[in-house]
Sequence to fold (339 residues):
Amino acid sequence: MTAAAHRCTIVPPFVLDRLAEQGHEAARRSLALDTLHRDNRLATALPAAAPAPHLTRTIGDARHSQRLPGRTVRREGGAATPDATVNRAYDGLGATFALFEQVYGRHSIDGAWLPLDATVHYGRDYDNAFWDGSRMVFGDGDGVIFVDFTSCLDVIGHELAHGVTQYTAGLDYQGQSGALNESLSDVFGSLVKQYALGQDADRADWLIGAGLLAPGVHGVALRSMKDPGTAYDDERLGKDPQPAHMDDYVDTAQDNGGVHINSGIPNHAFYLLATALGGSAWERAGRIWYDTVTGGALAHDSDFTAFARATVAAARARFDDIAANTVTAAWSEVGISTT
Fold:
């Protein structure tokens, strides 16, 4: 059994493009790596032998090379190492597994106990992290624009959630379906962090990559689900281009049709729903989104409207008409009709 995958990075290409144009060497090298990988379609085979029915993590160290998986430095159940990056990656894989297993009853990323593998210290000053269809890969950042990519739990959750989408809805990484793919990763990345911290929706920061920007960069994160378009405004990075409403939808050929840009619209819809429902976002809003992505109602090229309608149906099936109406209202606030 195989599943189609696309190599998905947390830092959008247009951010690295801008930095490279300004002569930022680490961004130029990072962009070259990402460009090499970006259009690769991967077929990820499930393990030939049945995986063990429990969490299984392996962390590799690339030692600043581009060779994967790198030297194994920590396995499941092994003691913490002197390398904080290794330990953060290990813990982040565990926290992501915990959300899906404990809240949604999903046995790892594929639902069938897929081992969770990661490689740290990839490349030299690599300004990104990615899911390659079978493993997480983390750069150390350059220390000028970005710090170590294992430093943000929601970044780890975001990238692994691409694997969940890969094994379920299989949304195309292009246009609106690609923006939904990115948004689902932001949603579940945020929920991984909220669940680990025990935060209700009204206490969460709703930021993706808070703490990832190096000191001196004018911004708080890569994206804001609460207020898309406000995560950063920096001379080097530019201004966060995410819209929060369909009136401001960005038509572009860049970034696979704006997958990291227009994801702000479904991101904001989820934030509005989660805060309207109140309590722990993973319990109701997250359950509705999880049911939608795993329930078989989505086509590989589903657009925002198709996804919104599927969430309304999922809310009604899981909960009641009140929940469904709340979902409808959230989508309406971002300019998407579900009727």
